[in-house]
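Subject: General stress protein 26 structure
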Amino acid sequence: MDSINQQQPEDNFKDLGGPEAIAKIKELVDSAKSCFFLSNIKTGIPASVRPMAVQKIDDEGNLWFLSAKDSHKNQDLSTDPMVHLLFQGSAHSDFLNIYGIATVSDDKEKIDELWEPILKVWFTEGKDDPRISVIKVEPTEGYYWDNKHGNAVAFIKQLAGAAIGKTLDDSIEGKLTVE
């Protein structure tokens, strides 16, 4: 354990599995202000990073995206399906790190399910645009950093800790296991 966490009077580690892990993933993805989608993880070339919007998280914890069939990301995934997703909800909490395996399809039913009118900005022919593909990311491992009682309580604890010279931190972190 690192020195900062050794000074922590509270237990601030909690690994989550199964439904509890899926619920935490949904919570953090829903609060995220940004998602960064990294591909080319195992190719030996620098990872490709791009912002992406999660369209849905299903009950198994899979993350669903829509993408253009001719995009660089789809090309990357055809040679290396391993991906790394990074989410950040605020400056001090709601961080999520997911590794997974991506599959690309042109499943019309899934496109209909995930479609939102704003997507017409990228897919100008609407949900029937022939360029739309679906990316499904099945998480293989994850890690989260959050706080236990919300940002206000976390901030008050930090102020109190600074005033008395003690680590009072409302953080919680742990491994996420979906299966």
